[in-house]
Description:
The chain has 20 helices and 30 strands. The chain is globular, with a radius of gyration of 24 Å. The mean pLDDT is 95. Among the domains are: 171 residues, Rossmann fold, CATH 3.40.50; 98 residues, ANL, C-terminal domain (GMP Synthetase, Chain A, domain 3, 2-Layer Sandwich), CATH 3.30.300. The strands form 9 sheets. Strands 5-4-17-16-18-19-20 form a 7-stranded mixed beta sheet, with helices on both faces. It is 30% helix and 24% strand. Helix 6 crosses helix 7 and helix 11 packs across helix 12. Adenosine-5'-monophosphate-propyl ester binds next to helix 12, strand 20, strand 24 and strand 25.
Amino acid sequence: MDIADWKTTDWILKEDRVFESDPNLVKDSNIMTYARGKGFSTLDELYRWAKNNLEEFWKDMASQLEWFAPWDVVLDWKYPDARWFDGAKCNIVYNCLDRHMHTQVRNQVAFYWEGESGARRIYSYASLFDEVNRFANALVRMGVQKGDRVAVYLPRIPEQIIAMLAIARIGAIHTVIYSGLGSKALAERVQDAEAKVVITADGSYYRGKVVELKPAVDEAIRFCPSVDKIIVVRRAKNRVMMVTGRDLYLDEALATADRYQPCAEMEAEDPLFILYTSGTTGKPKGVVHVHGGYMVGVYATTKMVLDLRKEDMYWCTADPGWITGHSYIVYGPLLNGVTQLFYEGAPDFPDPARMFYNIDHYGVSVLYTTPTAIRYLMHYGERWPAKFPMERIRVLGTVGEPINPEAWIWYREAFCDRCPVIDTWWQTETGMHIVTPVVNMPLKPGSAARPFLGIEADVMDADGNPVPPGKGGFLVIKTPWPSMMRDIYKDREKYESYWKTIEGVYVAGDACTKDEDGYFWIQGRVDDVIKKAGYRLGSMEIESALVGHEAVAEAAAIGIPDEVKGEAIKAFVVLKQGFSASDYLADQLKQQVRENMGVIAVPDEVVFVDSLPKTRSGKIMRRLLKAKEAGLEVGDTSTLEE
Ligand code: PRX
């Protein structure tokens, strides 16, 4: 990462309101129960202890889970590589499912699935165990082995969760690709992971329409020689092309599968999944997470941050195609043996009542959603939430992008004005919440509060000096944590760059300010990553899709402030000679991005320009375009060529 290109600003937001939650709601929180068990009567005491006893804290968390063989050491830290619970044997799926088969959790509901059209399916822990075993056995029969990569390109249907667990159960590595991504994005990921099998569906439902998935897979795997089988889940019952010998329907594969497939014994440090995310280059990065440490980090934060308990009904509106879904739909809740709602569709379909209806109907008590969803609903007005009592809500969470104080306040007022709003900052790479409030903390709207227990984070300048309160700097993590990524798949250098941009600490890529109370205020990305509606997109990925069009000579894509989506995408395009600008061409370019990358990456605006600002070495200065859009001073332009 080239930190010289990054600019931070001092704190511009002035927000001094502080909110306390209803003491009755938070007094028996999981975190306070843990604190009392350790002999502490306040959160501060617990935080102080954990800071000085990091390994002890994580050992406590790990001890609440089951291991096939114990660890030799809690942490083996050889900068920049950490091994957690080294020597231990485990399987995260054993802890999500098998462990509960001997307890009351067995007959409890794992998740209620609600289709967009109102279809319903209910899975108890026992029935989920059964489904996962059969799916796992079908994969084994197909020749999938420990360490093989299997790609999952599915919509939000139960099979998405079942497939992930089945793959991990046999020690294979899942790489889940968000079903909204296009065929080129899919091909790139499957190619890089060299997946043997792709699991997809005939189609999915979104906003009342059938969205096709199989054609994108057929197109993508033309470039993926590693793939020898495609499993197709029947969902939309639309006609798809099936290639004999290569493609088979899931129900056919399950018909001959055994009901039990032993859980593979994994080393704690064995990879669990590769999840691709966007960075500053044109190529997505394969973030690698492992069975042991990831399990402990996600288990602990689901319990202590989201405060999930047996009596809860939890709903996270994310998609398992992203890290939020991996950690806080699939693994975290199952590790904790809690019940959740898993909803297929858009929260405002067929109208904005859907979100509130779901909460009310299922009695959701812990809700985890995004600032964009909140701002969408806010824009529809009070009358929608006012129709639904939503009496059971006790915790409100947000994730994925900075939340502005106005949206924070509206969220609380509209959903539950006695409840804590937990603004959780973390990343694909961190695997779990890093800077976040917990339910018992005084809360400031727009602040992610403090580093979680067992985490040391700070705000630094480019030379690694801590910056004083109120000053802008880079968010860094100073010590390893169990669910940190272990690698960028096949790109060791990239992995190291996170820990070497500022020597000795992990640089997240976000600008941040700390206030006098030590609360963190995250300002957003400082690199060429765009956060549109919480989706993480690389400027260069969008640009490379644009220059794939015959008319385009050069392109630059930047994020510009958007009231609802946080950021919108604006693309600047230089045309080749012989092509002229038109609305028609702009639409064609948007279509080009849609087909390559998927609908989430489509520029909101395409403008045609004669040239782009570049450094003398030919690098596009997106920072300059951004500053100009925001009406700011363009800053140092001494390296500008034109
Ligand atoms: O910029 C930060 C933003 O999302 C980035 C990570 O994106 P991704 O890997 O897709 O993971 C999103 C879900 C964890 C971060 O670098 N971000 C995430 N949560 C917050 C946030 N920005 C501000 N406040 C948050 N709570």
